[in-house]
Structures are given as C-alpha cells and as structure tokens.
Amino acid sequence: MTQDLLLGWAGPASAWVEAAPVGNGRLGAMVFGGVRRSRFQLNDSTVWSGTPDGPAEGLAGVLAAGAGPDRLAEVRAAIRNEDYRRAESLLMSFEGPYSQEYLPYADLWMTLSADGEDAYHGRTLNLDNGVVREELTVGGRRVERLTWVSRPAQAICIALTVEGGTVDLGLELSSPLRVIQETALSLGIEIPVDGAPRHEEAVAEPLRYAGGPTGEYDPFGALVAKVETDGRLLTNGVATVLGMTHALVTLSSSTSAADVWSGTAAVNRQSHMDRAADAASQALATGRDELLREHETDLRGLLGSMSLVIGSRRGGTFDVEADILSGRDELLTATVIFQLGRYLLASASRPGSGPPANLQGLWNEELRPAWSSNYTTNINVEMNYWAAETAGLSECHTPLFDLLDKLAVTGGQVAKDLYGARGWVTHHNTDAWGWSLPVGMGHGNPSWAIWMMGGVWLAQHVWDHYEFTVDTEFLRERGWPLLRGCAEFCLDWLTEGPGGRLDTIPATSPENLFLSAEGRPESLTHSPAMDMSLIRALFTHCLAATDALGVDDPVCAEIRAALPRLHPPKVTAGGWLQEWAEDLTEEDPSHRHMSQMVAVYPLGEIDPARTPELAAAATKLLNRRGPGAMGWSWAWKIALRARLGDGETARELFLESSRPLTGDLTRDAPVDGSEWGGLLPNLFSSHPPFQIDGNYGFTAALLEMVVQSHNDVISLLPALPKAWPDGSALGVRCRGGLSVDLYWTEGRLTDAIIRRISGDERLPVRIDYRGRATELRLAAGSEIRLEIERMETSC
C-alpha cells in the first residue's frame, strides 16, 4: 500500500500563514495547534458581504450618470482620436461600486488543562486524507488531536484522545463579524451587506450592516458546535468538559447566502440555528470512527485518481522547513507542491458546496482581505482551475460553472443596458453574487477596472471541461448556452475598424500600460492581442460545439463571418510577441502580466510545432519579461515555458517560486525593492500577501512539464529538465476523454499506458514523444501500452 504524503511542523502556528488548512468545499478551518490554548479559524464559502441583488443597484446608478450605448460611442471616438483623457473621463462613468468581499466567519478556541508538565510534539497535515494530527502532552498526559472537515457530514470535526489520565477541555466561539445571538456553543452572526476593498482607504464605513433583512434577503449565519465526551460537560457562558479521556467536537453552519446559492427557500434566523444544530448533532451521532471513515473514503476517492512523483520519494512525513523550504531536495519539493495544489482545490471547491474557490481558496481571516478575496477574472480565478481537468479533479470544476450560470443572468442585463449588446458580459472582478459591472466607483484606473473579456476567458473553462470529459449532456444543457451567450456579446462588441478588421474598443491589456506618442503611460486602446486570442478561441469552440451537438444555430453564420476579420497574433519590430494591435512601447517591459501569452497557454493557439515563428517570438517575450515576480506570475511562466518545450527554464522558475518568503509575511508589497513572492511557512503561495492562485497554478504548470494534450496531440515528457531524470505520472487526464500513465528513468520514457475513459473510439489518438509520433485507436474502456523502443527508433 502506498504511504501517504504528510507535511510536518514541529511547533504550533504563531501566525495564520503558519496554520494548516482543512476544508470540504463549503466549510474550512485553519488549524493553529498548541497545548494550553489553540485556535481554529473557521470559514464558510458562502459568507460574503453584499446581497443577491448583485449589480442591479450599481447598474441603475451608472445608467443614471449617463453611461450607456450613446456614451460608449463617444468613448470609442475619443480613443480613435487618441484623446485619452476624454476617453478615460467618459469611461469612468461606466464604473459602478466594487464587487463584494469574502469574509472570515468565526474562531473556535480550545483550552486543555491538567496539573503537570506540558509539551508539544508536532502537527502534520495529510495531503491524501485531509486530516491534521497533533501530538501533545498536557499535565503529563499524552493527547492526540485530529481535525478534519467532513463533506458527507457537512461538519468540522475535532477528536481528542487522552492516555495516562484525564484532562479538562474548554471551548469558546467568537466571530470578527457582528454576533447577535450567542450561547456557550453557538453563534448567530449578522453578515455585512456591503464591504469596501482595503485599497479604498477613505471609506468611512468599510463594512456596513443592515441591522436586519434587506427585502427578501436576511444576511445571517448560524454556527453551532456539539460535544460528545466521557467527561462532565458544563455550559455556563463557555463550554467546559471536566475529567475527560476522549471528546468529539462537531461544528456545522447554515447561512442565508447558502440558500440563495443553492436556490432553496429562505427561512428565518431560528431555522438557520436549528439547521446548524441538527447537522452538528447528526455528525456527532455518527461517531468519531465512522465520521473519519466516511471522510477518508470521500477525499481519497477524489485525490487518489491521479498522482505525480518527481524523483522517487512521495510517501512519508516531511518537515516543511527542513525538507521542503530548505531547497535541499527539489524533486521532493516539486512532488509536494503538486499534491498540495490538488489537495487545496479538493478542499475548497466541490459540487454543491457553494461559490468556487476565490483568491484565497476557502481560507481567510481578514475583515478587509487583499483584493477583497474575490474573483479577479483577468487570470486569477482562471488559474485556480487550470489543473481541475488534467489533475483528475474534474468535479471540482462544477462550482465555477455554477457561478457562470449566475453571471449569464446578471451579465445579460449589463450587456443589454450598458452596451446595447446581446448575450452576457463580465468585467475585471466578480463575486459570489455574480457581479458583472466594471468596478472602480468612477475613479478606478481603466488598466484594472475596465476589461470586457472576463466572461470570454471564463467560458474557456466550459470548453475545457467538455474536451476532457467528452460529456455531451453537459455541453448541451450547460456549456452551449454559456458559450453562445458569450459569443453573442462578442459579436455585438466588435466594431468595424480600419482595413476591414474587427476591433474591441475600448480595450485594455489587463494591468499593463503603453507609452503614448507624448511618452505618457496609457491603458485605453483597441484590439489588444489578448482580446483577439480569447474571442478567436471562443468562436472556434462555438463552431466545434454545434458540430458535436449536431445543431444548426444562426449565430454560427455570424461567427464564421467574423472569425477571419479578427486581428491575428503579431510580432514587434524587436522580435517579441506583440501585446497591442499596434507595436506600442511598454511602460514596464518586465511587467508581471503577459496578457498576449494567453495564446500560448492555456489556449494553445501558438506552439512550436504548428506556429514556430510565433513560438520563437513568445520565447523572446518571456526572456524580455524576465524571471518571476510573485506566486501566480511564476506559475504562469512555468506553464508557458513548458508549452514552449523549455524545461530547463521552467525548472529554474520553479526553484525561484518555491523558496521561502522572509521578512514581513503579511505585507502587500516589497519593503526593500526585492522581488515579490515565495512560499509562506505553511506553503501557501505569496502575492504577497497570500493568494492561492499560485498554489493551483503550480500544480497545472508542473503537470504541463511531463504531459500535454492540445491540438489533438498527447505529448509525453515535453519539457522534462535534466535534473528531474526519474519519476512517474499516473492517471493524467487528456483531452478527448483519455488518461495516461507514464514512468521515466534517467530522463527516458520507460513505460506508458493510454486509456480511453470516454469519447469517440473512432477518432485516432496521436502520441508524441521527443518529436516522434504514433497514432492509435482505443475502444471505450480499453488501454494500450506504448512500444517505447519502437517510437525512439522510428523516423
């Protein structure tokens, strides 16, 4: 039996970025550990500021301020005339309030006491079964404490076992939000109806409470704990257990937002308290052993479907500081970081759990978290899900599609009223309520506030899910309506430009600036490369979708007419891949955003085999941008280098990205001008501060180094660095309903098995290894072992 992979820490966490994360998609906890007093910081994925009205009120406000199709025409004219100040001034009237914030929920404080000596013997996080285990000595008694979050039971579970006597246990619940009902083991929490991002420093009331229901919505959450023990339980203000040798604590939650998210009928506050209590009681009645068995069966069933081992070590307990952050064994570090990303996605995003993984996944302790811990759509939320299909976590993709269903509704109204367009649109940010307006409150710089392609990039995930699963029912029922609506918006958004080309205008290349003829940094332009690549991919997928479904849709005729008129990828006079429609000068040539590179990864529009000149220009652009800057940017650069076949540079970037972050671990920017990023003491990826997209992105990028499947080819070991000569990748999912197992030794592929899980068995499967290709066909449920030696010697 394969040994589990465990992360170890010798001591308890002294800060949040040292705590160990556990979660079930809906409920999460950060386990600090400790002897006498320990903290469990709790989250619920549905606890967001705001209301289900989403952008409705903000849309009414910007329309009243004059935004709309007529003003849009003025903006376009100003940009064509390079009157950027007028264009910005007019366009800022389109900016509504900010999207809402993902908030911390509560804390459970646990005390243990007994006469005698204390000691802490360490804690581990099992990345295969999602259990945190602590060993400690309390008053000379040996104590084991296990913490996990059960998806089957929908409860946070903490189990304690004492040897050598008894100890006393204390439990206390608190919340940084407004507590309006409280007992020793329960909290009724009012949730803010509005939250301002922390970069808006002048806001007088950063979190605004309604003080009660707002229309049909009641911003409320209930958290209830239950305790089973052989000790004497007292609940007088706080909960105390006297003289226990074992205890099981279960916590469950019920929120108004969860009802909205799932589409169930709203209930009153007491009903939420009752629901949470019932769930905690049912979990408690299940008992420790059965709770743990159900949890492990659930999580192992998901995580056990796939693995990547760089080198030979995977199983065992590895000290995070000594074994991972020290850099002594990069092979082990790569293996750990890969599995950590899978574990974090499985813990933060499950079907029916609520909103998808946000900028911090599921875990947040800040009332005003960085970037509101929401969804930034110009790469960050997409990166969260890059590994969902390839790494065997397809079901974890589902919450993202649930959010897209909401955006298709709210974004449909925004597209119609704000731009006079069909379909649906999403801009730079969104939240659990489906925010789809531009943000910025009328003073946001367009480089980060105005971007109309958020929905277009998110729609790529719809097609990815279909390509990997070949789930025609999903495509027909959910995928095609989303793709079609997004395409309708793009068709109406595109305008006639010089030379018969179709333009997107106004447009930005997200978060980057160019220099105008006067040398001034500007963001507003038309038809940047990213817009064109995203729209081209969307249109192509729409045509493929109708072919797969056998439908004849009128929108396809419009798409066929528009496709050849989109701007193609271009190369600058300097030889690198061009970012804007014209060869403009970058304000920051080393900027962390490389938006034109979306054509390389994840879209696959540019690759060395099919478009060698453009691939060479992409490589030159990467060289120009330089090494990494922060977690997510490193992850993207690793994936890009892998797609371009440059395993050596991909490895160098990974080594940079996996070094420990030192100094002030909570800062929002470098204090000394040094590079940003690195890994925090619990291996969370730093922006800084913490931002989980880096963790998720590393998983996708590392897998791209050993297996790729795009443009109808499965490539084996396409970017394997020389320093990683041995390893295995099992259960890697590939486009076309396929999976791959492969082993390599001394840099050479030694065994590979291709399986068909789903899809059309009549279609050929093309396999490439070191530039040598073979073609085969697989019946449903069958597998083929490749003849490696024949492939190596074939011409």
What does this entry look like structurally?
This protein is 31% helix and 24% strand. Helix 1 (56-64) runs parallel beside helix 10 and helix 12 (454-469) packs antiparallel against helix 13. The chain contains 20 helices and 35 strands. The protein has 3 domains: 5-48 and 103-304, putative glycoside hydrolase family protein from bacillus halodurans (Beta-galactosidase, Chain A, domain 5, Distorted Sandwich), CATH 2.70.98.50; 77-95 and 379-626, Glycosyltransferase, CATH 1.50.10.10; 715-793, Sandwich (Immunoglobulin-like). The protein is globular, with a radius of gyration of 26 Å. A hairpin with a 5-residue loop joins strand 25 and strand 26. With 795 residues, it is an alpha+beta fold. The model has no long low-confidence stretch (mean pLDDT 95). Strands 11-12-15-18-9-8-7-6-1-20 form a 10-stranded mixed beta sheet. A 7-stranded antiparallel beta sheet has the order 2-3-4-5-10-17-16.
